[in-house]
Amino acid sequence: MAAETEIVAGLPIACRLLSAKRQAREAELQQEVFGAIQETHELADGYALRFPSEARWLVTLADFIRFERECCPFLRFELHAEQQLGSFWLRLRGPAGAKEFIAELIGPPAPSSAG
Fold it and tell me: Under a CB-based contact definition with an 8 Å cutoff, are residues 79 and 90 in contact?
């Protein structure tokens, strides 16, 4: 585990350049994913994001993770499906500096449904 930490800690907090076609698809996915966030929870090393429970989000979020893993290898992705066909949660985490990077990507927090 220590070796894994050392490797991750040495990665720069920056996106790798992709081909123009891949950049365009990544931008589409980012817009779709970040536009659908229903709730945001701040974590010590990143953010937890809640998404709708419709099955299509499993595919969309998996595609998003596939692109972002290539682009941003310093990030850790955790996809969680709630029981009873509930919401999907995507946790984006990383080393020091990653949380600020993620905050820029996701934009302002989703409005709270509490009232």
Answer: yes
Cβ neighbours of 102 (radius 10 Å): 21
3-state secondary structure of 93: strand
Residue whose tokens read 């966030």: 37
Unique residue bearing structure tokens 């709630």: 82
Structure tokens at 102: 């993620």
CA distance 16 to 21: 14
Q: Is the pTM of this model over 0.90?
A: no
What is the per-residue pLDDT across 37-49, written as a single tens digit (0 to 9) for each? 999 999 999 999 9
16 vs 24: CA distance, rounded Å: 14
Helices 20-35 and 56-71 meet at what angle, rounded to 10? 130
Six token digits for residue 77: 């992705």
The rounded distance, in Å, linking the Cα atoms of 53 and 86 is 5
